[in-house]
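As the next step, I needed to go through one protein, both as residues and as discrete backbone shape codes, included below for the reader:
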Amino acid sequence: MPSSRTLTLGTALLATIAVLGFSACAVEDAQSGDSPAMEAAAGQEGSIPNFEVDPFWPQPLPNHWIMGSVVGVGVDSRDHVFVVHRQASLNARTEASADSDPPTGECCSAAPPVLEFDPDGNLVNAWGGPSDAYDWPASNHGLSIDHLDNIWIGGNGAGDSHILKFTRDGEFIMQMGEPGRDANSSALDHFGRVAKISFDPEANEAYAADGYGNKRVAVIDMDTGEIKRFWGAYGNEPSDENLGPYDPGAEPAQQFRNPVHCADPSADGLVYVCDRPNDRIQVFQRDGTFVDEVMLAPETLGDGSTWDVAFSGDAEQRFLYVADGKNARIYILDRVELELLAWFGDGGRQPGQFFAVHSIATDSRGNLYTTETYEGKRLQKFVLTGMRSGSGDLGVPWPGGN
């Protein structure tokens, strides 16, 4: 089996953590495409990105609207931030009384499923939901924006064996895959409860983390929706066998467990896959050839530790950000070396803390956006303020706290 590495954050994150050394990767001279904050820090040795939460972003929603579990985030070419949330996750008695029949109070109502915010955090558009033109997912999951600013949405509910594609204004473009089909990790005509879609514009291909039913990465022609190829863990032929619960003491599983939660191609032709319940990120070439893997918080059980990834905004994508919903933090890794440098956040409901941080994305300036599922039901912005020294646990990134 290919070699792997394990980064243990204590025993189930409860033991005292020794200070981690980080690689002496210099932040090189700024290149075209670097975010301004990183460009200003060019030349610093051993630096990592420094973030501060913006507690006033986004602005309050109108119409007594509130969000349910927020399960997808993407940023378009204008740095507008889009999220998708689940209306059905709101409690009619305690959260959405205006939606009751009859209403039991004036506040609040579920916002439309897809919300668009401008860079200042103002809501500028809202759309989505069932239509005669397409099959809205039973449980929408993941929102991604391609290089043409089209919106792709998957689903992880029963019968969500398809993907939807819209313009950024909500005009329906295409439905890919046949809905209502059972999981089959070898299928070419449908998916198996897709968690997230990411893109390789140069090859005109989309990568589906497929996902909650299937146990594979599926590569799609962005124009036709045709499934071109797929693979499982270590590049193996995927299997639908039930592997049972993850066991930290067992040999690494040769297949993905459900859910396969992300599959993001980098600019240099690698694909980073979130094998969430197995607490690992696996790296592949675009043809499915296995390259490397890293374990994060490998004692984590249940929901797992590797929920989503995003790349830093510099041209080289020097850093990999990993959302860990179970342990309520964001990891910062050296992307190429897969070396854990630091992490920030903590469990809680204050700005900069997390309750099941689910999805993560970056804008053109290197700022981070995170969403929270379950009872979290929130979108947060973390402003890239420059570079800093440090390693290990950076705590809650409160403004002025570092």
